Amino acid sequence: MSYNTDQLRTAGKITVYTTFIGIFIFAVVFIFNLGATEIHTVDAQSNATTSVTVVNTPPVWTVDAEELVGSSTTTPTDAGNTVSWVAVGTDSNSERYYLLVCSTNASPTPNASGPSCGAGATQWGVSASTTSGTQASVSTTTQASWAEINNWYAFICDSNVSDPRCNITPKQGSGTTSSPFIVNHRPSFSAFVDDSPKNPGEAVTFTATASDADTFTGANDTVFLTVCASSGFDTVTNACTGTTLATSSALVANDPTAVYTIIIPTQDNNYGAFGYVTDMHGFEAIGATQGSDSTLTVNNVAPTVGAATISVNGGSDIALTTEAGETTGFTLSFTTSDNNSCDAFGGGAADEITGYNLSLYRSGIGSTTCTVGAGSYNANNCYSSGAAPSTWNLSCTASTTTCSGSNDTDMVWNCTFPLWYIADPTGGTATSSPYWNENWLAQVQGTDDDALTGALTESSVGVNVLSLLAFALNTLSIPYGSLEPGQQTDPLVATTTLAATGNVGIDSDVLGQSMCTTYTSSTHCPVSASSTIPEDMQVFATSTVSYALATPISSTTPALIDLNVHKSTATSSQATNNAFWGIAVPGTITYAGNYTGENTFTVVLSDPAQWY
To answer: Residue 277, SS3?
Structure first.
């Protein structure tokens, strides 16, 4: 058996389909020829040339498109930042391809130099020409004018020059990296204020007029306020570059507030307070208000004095030692505190606490009667700093070491002062002073550099002024005149004057010596009926009475002269009283001459009921 064959020719790209057709034709010809040979039909044959055009195919998805970093409701993309997509496409002809991202699924338009989105679609971006089978990427910079929610559809298209094709099956990612992408817009911020002026230790509330119009979370985005002590805000950490004064306690829908408690001490002044608003995603507001200064104003406050810091004479009782004058060297100390600090400007340039007012008084007089003004001064019971130095020489100085600077509140003052001899005694018992159950107290107030005066504070611990039992015998002789033996002064005529030179009422005890013509302080009179007048022949009384009614004196037993000299109440003169004296010259005296002797007066405390 023999076959007549010619070689078959084809043109174009061979596909599975054309191969199958060729085999089928070959089979038919073979059968035909076989039949022709066997059955001896027509010998002649002719050849048909076949041809087919194999069209370009689009690339296929190897890795579906997705956002490189998920832009979702929880992690939106701030306006001005980029959204990126990635995918892998493979082309059967190994041609390069593009990743195209559009706002709708309208069929894109292929192009060898880069495809474009279909009619009506916004083109978010198209990648650079990418090698088949490798990752393509494309990015777009979001704009403040864009909507919050933005759908996207990704396509891949090849770069075939003659017949570019796009895979019309779009991809939209999955999970948090899927369509849509979310644009986060900046919050609005139009005003920044605070409710100062406030005092140190008080809370200042800062308020921002701010909100966020984004609603993709189901409600408006919330906003947050940060207040800085100086201008400067780190947009990466969303924190002050310097000191943070206050932050919102929570995210709020609008108008966030932040509270700052002014530290103690803080000097009275104006301070910077710069407000910065961010949204719930940390996106900062922009504009003139962002970072503006609301100017925190701190008030000047008056200094205070702690009661426990007031120390009169170091807590020791005051002992007067100068009769009919002033005793000096007593002390008073106290601490003034100022919540603006003790230092006005820092560095010791000036003191915030510049002065004081005070008074020292008997507690029964009280602080409302004994004020710090000059008019209440009374040397008996009230000493006021308002009095002129010539009246009361109070001297107080501020310690140079206690105020350590603007972070310190306290300044210690040390004072010295005198008291007059008539200052009322306190303490003891009811038999020693009308003021036995009282003491002496001080009240103090501080003043600052703005002439603001604090409240008066009374010392919590008082001291006693001790009794000064003192007198002056203003009459240093008792002249009985001339008498004959057997005569007496009747009524009493000679006088002695006692003056109270301490701070109590007084009486006096008296002892007497016999009188003779040879008496001296060291040589007393002999016992002699003819030349010595015994001491008990002298008598005294507190008024001009007869000799018989007067009281004789003794050389051994003091006799009380119940003068009841009042307590002195004036600094320039003393209270006084007189004792009246008489004498009887014994009839046994035969020796004529000038008889002298000596009487000794001793001051004693009088009954307090008799002091005034």
So the answer is: strand
